[in-house]
Structure formats: structure tokens, C-alpha cells
Amino acid sequence: MTFALVFLAVIMATVIGWLLRQSLNTQPWQADDPLENRPGRGVIAVEPAKIALLSFIAVATSLFALFLSAYLMRMKMADWSPLTEPKLLWLNTGLLVLASIAFQLTRSAATRGQLPTVKTGLIAGGVCTTLFLLGQLVAWQQLNAGGYFMTGNPANAFFYVLTALHGMHLLGGMWVWGRTTARVLAGADARSVRLSVELCTVYWHYLLLVWIVLFALLLST
Amino acid sequence: MAYVAIADRDHDIEHHDPTTFITKYIWSQDHKVIAIQYSITAIFVGLVALVLSGMMRLQLGFPDSFSFITPNNYYQFITMHGMIMVIFLLTALFLGGFGNYLIPLMIGARDMVFPYMNMLSYWVYLVSVIVLLTSFFVPGGPTGAGWTLYPPQAILPGTPGTDWGIVLMLGSLALFIVAFTMGGLNYVTTILQARARGMTMMRLPLSLWGIFMATVLGLLAFPALFVSAVMMMLDKALGTSFFMPAIVSMGEQLDYDGGSPILFQHLFWFFGHPEVYIVALPAFGLVSDLLSTHARKNIFGYRMMVWAILAIGGLSFVVWAHHMYVSGMNPYFGFFFATTTLIIAVPTAIKVYNWVLTLWQGNIHLTVPMLFAIAFIFTFTHGGLTGIFLGNVVVDLPLSDTYFVVAHFHMVMGVSPILVVFGSIYHWYPKITGRMLNETLGKVHFWGTLLGTYAIYLPMHYLGFLGVPRRYYAMGNTEFMPESAFVLNQSITISALIVAGFQLIFLYNLISSLRNGEKAGPNPWRATTLEWQTPDTPPKHGNWGHTLPEVHRWAYDYSVPGYPDDFIPQNVPADPSIPAYDQGSHGPDHGTSS
Lengths: 221, 594
What we know:
The complex is a heterodimer of chains A (about 220) and B (about 600).
Chain A: H1 2-23, H2 34-37, H3 48-74, H4 88-112, H5 115-145, H6 154-185, H7 194-220
Chain B: H1 21-26, H2 31-61, H3 71-107, H4 115-134, H5 165-193, H6 206-237, E1 248-249, E2 252-253, H7 261-295, H8 302-315, H9 331-359, H10 368-391, H11 393-399, H12 403-433, H13 439-466, H14 483-516
Antiparallel strand pairs in B: 1-2
Helix pairs in contact in B: 2-3, 2-4, 2-14, 3-5, 3-6, 3-7, 3-12, 4-5, 5-6, 6-7, 6-8, 7-9, 7-10, 7-12, 8-9, 9-10, 10-12, 10-13, 12-13, 13-14
């Protein structure tokens, strides 16, 4: 459980550290205390949706970290037999990197109000992600054809579960991407979708990072 | 473009009032309606769990007297009782119920930041409850694996409900976690981003600190339950071996191989222990506000109370394995977890001292909410003290599988939070409905519940010391158990049935006061927090009429010297005619009684 503990310790330290900072140098019992009322001691200057996304990323990090902890504990058992990951995963990784780059470019374009680039970027990001997901399904088929069934070995089972979990998170992101793209195609102003594009970008970068960690772990064990 | 806080652009935000019955009361996005929906569902399912516990007690007090309570039924009742009470009642009621109702009102907001997601949260929760209750009607009935659902027995033949019950249980837990996550993201974001002008974090009432920290814990800890539920579901449905070892069942070698049941225990308790605080922290917060309001005195050591909540939240993630001392762990691990367990008692004890010191020299009004709040201090201290026993490995080993543990956890996370729930309902019912609950019935309910629960759980400690094992359907003629143990069991059962009867008084009061209760007025307790300062009681959609409130002080300005009333609401500015010293600046811990 050390793996999960480290991640949670970082998250909790961040949360508790921020909250503690709110409490330092305050005298809450003072009415209209100038210290309490000064600018910057109120809300965080970030859109609520970003706070919600960051909180969700913390939840997802906890989920993945716990799965990885379970993976590391389970692989110590005698029956663990590592599988050979399909080479296709490298190509899939490349596609996800491209998706992330596309979203990053889209984000910059949305900030500058460049609608054509936003359209292209969103479509490119969506296509690369769809290809990634399809590629993951093909990788599953290749493993199945190679006799690596889910019930054959815990290493196989973890591979299917972790990739499925990651894919489902991407699908959730694709729902937001779909709504944003539909708005852009319907003629929405680039700046009006800036927040949605930013949220997608942060989420895609996060899921790329998660995939790289998962992939590295699967390859090395 | 610089970000403008929600409270500062209130007039630019469109607030769509619900226009139809459906959008007002069913598919409602109003946090108050959602809170009531959550509360009614949670209380309903809690009543189911109460009936189940009554049937368990009938079997334990009067074994072989009730033919409809078979061994299988007994284990199913235990399992469903535990899971419902911990997850589907307490977690849902504290966060989905009180959290939803109080957060926007106490911070001076119009609603949650994401009302649609808030609505979805309730409906997914309702589906999870329906899925759970459905298991009573499927072949084989609900799972009887115990609320901890330990493998391998949870999915092996011989345990009740291994066909459908366990599948529905795991499914309903997964749904609950989805619902909780949607709600939790809302609570956190709303508290951080939608506070009214002047409502700094350090002016939040402690109720919200407790709810906030419990939500953070839930968001980070529930994934552990989700992980274990998914992996167990795969072991059950597809035949993987995450948790299932090579095993012979009913004389037949099964296909499982090499899985680790201990891995499940780690994951489960990694969720399970923070879950104790997910329930306890909101209770700590709510009871702090009840004590302060009804003692007409500022809470003692506000900042220390906040720090204690933070410390408890952080430490709650490093104590989980004290639930696993009997699993054969390395003694060094045992030592580590015993140490962290004892350390977490420090901030908890600080809170207890501060509650007592809040009462010290206060102008104590023995209202029904106050009675429940004071009773909480007793029951929580008792439960906490036995926790110190069980946190030590050498003491835990002989007691772990006895009724001592049942007594401990019921006192600390059953009776104590429920007393706070009752106190809080008596306290906030006037705001929610505009009517007071009947005080006489409330006091009858209080004394029956408090004395009754002591009659149930104090003897259980003694049974535990005698070595009476928990989880057993029938004790048989066990020689080490004296006759008095059997008599005690009967007495406990009778007490439990009487306590259950007293809850009917509460339900009657709850329903009849809707129509017959005395009209409450906007602020019957003369409380300082914002929810009591709304222009309408009950608050209408949008809570605040035309203008959002502004906050000028903390939530605990009671009995401020020099001020004509014995309370100053949070939205009242400092009065230049009163010397600064007297305007709530008399220090955090030196409030005086009026």
C-alpha cells in the first residue's frame, strides 16, 4: 500500500497545507478584521469548474494509485506470470501523445480566439483519442488470440482491468469533448468554449501521464 | 480576464426558478429539496436496517424462539444492517442531507455550484439504494458475508447470497461511490468558491469544516472501496483470482489460484477507517455548533478545533491496519499502527476538552438539541476510551472477535453520530419546515434513546470481557459463559426493542409537527450563522432574496459584552459605538455568559 500512501500523502499535504495557510495570522473572533477581509483571503481566483476538475483528478489519482498498489502487492505472489505486452501499445501511446498535443494547440487557439484552429484541433484531438481507444481494443484482441485470457493469470487480469479503467476515463472525457466540438461546429465563438477546451486539455494531459505510468509499469514487470 | 468570484457577480448570474411541480420537488436542482430527498431516503433505509437489527437481537436474546430467523437470515440481517447504517444511512445523511442543506446557506450562497450534478448525485444514490434493497427479493436473498465482505467466503457457496446478493451489493456500492463523488465534488467546490463576501475559511462554522474535511476524506478513500468492489466482482463473475486463493469448496477444487484475501482487507480498511471519520467529522462539526448556540457561548478554541479536524483527516489514512491485527501481520507493523492509532486520539481528545470547556460557565439552555449534543460528549468519550483499549495489539487480540468490539464501534460510530443527527434535526427542523418540533415528545425521545442505548451497549462490554464471540448465530451450551451472560443478552434485546419503539415517537413528532408544530419564526434559537438570517423561513429558491449577505464576523459571537442581545449574526457589521474589545474581539476562548 506504500504506493497509494505516497500519492495520498502528497494530496493530503497539499489540501491540509492550503487549509492551514488560511488559518495562520488570523484572529477569527475579530469582527470586520482587516486581516480577514483583505483581498486574496477570499475565494481562489480560478473558475469553479477547474477546481472541480482538479478535485476529480485527485479522486482518479487515488483510484489509479490504489489499483497500482494492489498490482504491486499481488505480483509478489508465486503464481504471477508476466505477459508480453503487444507492440501496438507503442503506437497507441504515440496517438495519445498526439491527442494531448492537439488539445494543447487548441487551448492556445481558443485563448487567442482563432476559431478555425480550435475546430481543427478539437477534431484532431478527438480522432487521435478514438484511434487510441480502438488500438487498445485491438491490443486486447491480440492478447486474447495469444492465449492471454483474463482468468489465465493475475498479470493478464490486471492488464485488462487497468487498460479498461484508463479507457473509461478517456470515454468520460470524450463526452465533454463531444459537447464542446458540437458547440464549435454549430458556430459558437472560440472564446466561449475556452473553458471547456482548457478543461479537456488538462484532463487529456493527466490521462496521458497516467497512461505513461501504467505502460511503464506494465512493461517493467 | 481576471476571475470574478461568484458572490461578486451574483446579479449577472441567471437564477432559473423551477416552474413545475416536477422541477420543484422531483427533478429538483435546489440544494434544499435535494437535501430533503437525501434525508428521507437515508432515514427510510435506516429504518429498514433498524428492523434488521431488531431481528438479530431477537435471535440473540431468545435463540430458537423465532422460526423465521434461520442462520442464513441472521447473517444476511447482520450484513445488510451494517452496510446500510454505515454507508447508506450515515454517510448519505451527514453529507447528502446536512451537507446539501447547510453548505450553501451557511456560506451565503444561492445554491451549489453545479446544481445539475447535485441532482444527479441524489438520483444515482437512490438507484444504489434500490439495487441494494432489491437483493432481498432475488433468489438466495442478500449477501450474508458480513459488512466487511471478506473473501474468500463472500463469494463461496455456503455463504448466503452468493448467487445474486453479493453481486447486487457490490453493484450498489459502486453506484453509491459514483453518487458520492458527484456530490462531493460539488461540496468541495461550493465551499471553496461560492462563499459570500467576507466569509473567509476561518469564519466558516465548524459544521462546514467537518463536512468539508469529511468530503475530502470520502473523495480520496471511497476509491479504495471501489477498487476492492471491482476486483471482487471480477473474481465472482469472471473467475479471476485477485483475492481468491487456491481453495477446496464443498469437496471440490475450484479454479481460483494464488489470490490474496489479505489484499482485500488492506483495500477495504484503507477505505474503512477513513469512513469512520467521514461519519464522525460532520458529527464533530455539527455538535460544536449545537453546543455553542445552546450554551450561548463562543466555541472554545476555534482555531484548535479546525486544526484538530485537519489532523484527524490526515491521520485517518495511516491507521487502517488496526482493524487487521488478527490477520497475522508483522509485529513491527502492528506497533506502527498502534502508535498512529494512539496519536489520532490526541486531536480527538482536544475536541472533547474544547466541547466541555465551551459548556464551562456557559448559559446552558437544556433544549432538546442541547440534550442530544451533551449526550454525544458522553457516548463519544465512552466509545473513544474503549478504542484506546482496542488500538493496542495485545489487548485487541483477545477482544477482537468478542462483543467488546461490537460495543465499542456502536458507541463511537453508531450511537454518537446518531445522537448528533437527532440533535441536528431538532435544531434545524424549524428552518427547514418553519415549525418547531414538539419539545415534550423530543425529551421523551431523548431520554428513551440515551438510557436505552446505554442499556444495550454497556453490558456488551462485559460480554466481551467474558469472551462471548460476536458474529455467532447461537451460542449453544458454551461452558465458559455463565448464566448471567444469557440473561444479559435477553436484557439487551428487550432494551433494543424499547429503543426502537422510542424512534416511533420521533417519527410521529417529525410528521405531526409539519402541520401541528408551533410556528418557528426565522431564528428561534437566536443563532448567529447565516442560515438563520434568510429573508424567508423556510428559505425560498435562491435563499437570499434580491441580495446576497455579507459576512462581518465569525459564527460564534454569543454573549458579547456591551451588546444588547446575547448573539450577533454573522452578517451584522461591527458597531462603532461599542468599543472594539467588546465586538467579538474578546479572544477565542474567553466568552462570558450573559
